[in-house]
């Protein structure tokens, strides 16, 4: 990125970043990369930063396919497939992702901080009307893709679990990745194999969501009665308004508190899963965090601490995590086998179903159909934060960002809970 007159990567000047990159990559190819988190994180952060920067500046990719994240995952996977990464480096990264729990560490911060950091009043007000619209999105999209999958010979179950749920699951890090672990344990399938099918669905779903956002904007101009031109509620007196954001100044001690809170909630999920093993620990963690948030018993200073830790992790380690996903969980051969005309049609049906379901239920609860379709539908089907920005930009409705965030955070979290429950029915 450009800051002032200088170009920076990860906030560093190019000369500084180059020196670091040369040192880290030299340890890989001289076969002296330290084992464990030191070596793995060093390589993942350097490679992730480079690939993310490339992806964020590639035409089409940056506008429709999610930009950096997609490039990071697929190019990292290609480095393994074509043996560009030394075998020892692949082993160290894979062990760090799978055996040493970096993925769980990231997800704990993501779920805890994103939910606790939300405005409670907005959350409670939105629950009555907005969450039903999200449920409409989920039900219609999964029914559509399940029926279509059955009729097309792809398989209803496979269409729902491999395509439908990942698309509306909240993106990559908070959606497809934890879903692959949930499904892997439930179906006794290697999570890497499942993720290789899910990743293309998430990317294509994101692209179609952005395109559809633009089409809905045009529909609103043709049929003005369907849109509030950026206003969600038909009855303006009941409009859900986001309150002014609180200041959450950087505090190293607070960040440490947030780290411990995130780890503790992950432990809570593990404890509950011990006694109620039918549901994945991720789902129990989400439910416990949501319960604490809704009853409002956690002091706000600790909620903000968890939010600050989440922001630190997401900003500094997301690209690194995506390198790990590409190396440890993405098999390009499996990805290639997943692609077919059937696959592309099912992705499109999922996105259309998401928008249609949200529009129909949204209208019933007093929303404008187009605004409901965009926020409760397309912002469920896109790739989380970056997808929200892209969809709202395409539809020219950036003022709906608070609702897009509810879809990405709570909607995505709900999908993990739903996935754990559905496993019990279909496994």
Automatic annotation (TrEMBL):
One cellular component term from this protein's GO annotations in UniProt: plasma membrane
GO molecular function terms noted in the UniProt entry: organic anion transmembrane transporter activity; symporter activity
Stretch forming the signal peptide: none
Superkingdom of origin: Bacteria
Transmembrane segments: 12-32, 64-85, 105-123, 130-154, 160-183, 195-216, 255-275, 310-329, 341-361, 373-394, 406-426
Pfam families in alphabetical order: 2HCT
This protein's UniProt keywords: Membrane, Symport, Transmembrane, Transmembrane helix, Transport
Entry keyword Transcription regulation: no
Recorded family membership: Belongs to the 2-hydroxycarboxylate transporter (2-HCT) (TC 2.A.24) family.
Name of the featured protein: Citrate-sodium symporter
Organism field: Clostridium liquoris
Gene this chain is encoded by: citS_1
């Amino acid at each position: 990125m450009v800051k002032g007159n200088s170009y920076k990567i990860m906030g560093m000047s190019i000369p500084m970043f180059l020196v670091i990159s040369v040192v880290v990559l030299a340890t890989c190819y001289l076969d002296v990369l330290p084992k464990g988190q030191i070596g793995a994180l060093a390589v993942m952060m350097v490679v992730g930063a480079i690939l993310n920067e490339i992806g964020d500046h590639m035409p089409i990719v940056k506008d429709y396919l999610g930009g950096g994240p997609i490039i990071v995952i697929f190019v990292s996977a290609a480095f393994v497939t074509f043996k560009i990464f030394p075998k020892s480096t692949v082993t160290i990264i894979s062990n760090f992702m799978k055996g040493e729990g970096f993925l769980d560490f990231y997800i704990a911060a993501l779920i805890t901080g994103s939910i606790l950091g939300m405005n409670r009043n907005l959350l409670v007000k939105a629950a009555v009307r907005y969450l039903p619209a999200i449920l409409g999105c989920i039900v219609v999209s999964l029914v559509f893709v399940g029926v279509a999958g059955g009729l097309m010979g792809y398989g209803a179950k496979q269409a729902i679990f491999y395509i439908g749920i990942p698309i509306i699951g909240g993106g990559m890090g908070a959606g497809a990745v934890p879903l692959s672990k949930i499904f892997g344990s439930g179906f006794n399938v290697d999570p890497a194999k499942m993720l290789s099918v899910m990743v293309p669905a998430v990317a294509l779903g994101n692209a179609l969501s952005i395109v559809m956002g633009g089409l809905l904007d045009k529909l609103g101009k043709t049929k003005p009665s369907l849109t509030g031109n950026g206003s969600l509620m038909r009855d303006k007196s009941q409009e859900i308004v986001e309150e002014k954001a609180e200041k959450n100044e950087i505090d190293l001690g607070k960040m440490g508190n947030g780290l411990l809170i995130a780890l503790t909630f992950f432990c809570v999920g593990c404890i509950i899963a011990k006694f109620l093993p039918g549901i994945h620990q991720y789902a129990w963690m989400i439910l416990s965090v949501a319960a604490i948030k809704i009853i409002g018993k956690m002091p706000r200073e600790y909620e903000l601490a968890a939010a600050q830790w989440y922001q630190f992790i997401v900003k500094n380690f997301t690209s690194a995590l995506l390198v790990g996903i590409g190396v440890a969980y993405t098999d390009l051969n499996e990805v290639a086998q997943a692609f077919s005309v059937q696959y592309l049609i099912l992705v499109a049906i999922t996105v259309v179903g998401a928008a249609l379901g949200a529009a129909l239920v949204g209208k019933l609860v007093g929303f404008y159909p187009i605004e409901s379709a965009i926020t409760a539908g397309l912002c469920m089907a896109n790739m989380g934060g970056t997808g929200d920005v892209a969809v709202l930009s395409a539809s020219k409705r950036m003022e709906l960002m608070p609702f897009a965030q509810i879809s990405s955070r709570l909607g995505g979290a709900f999908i993990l809970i739903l996935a754990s429950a559905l496993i019990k029915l279909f496994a």
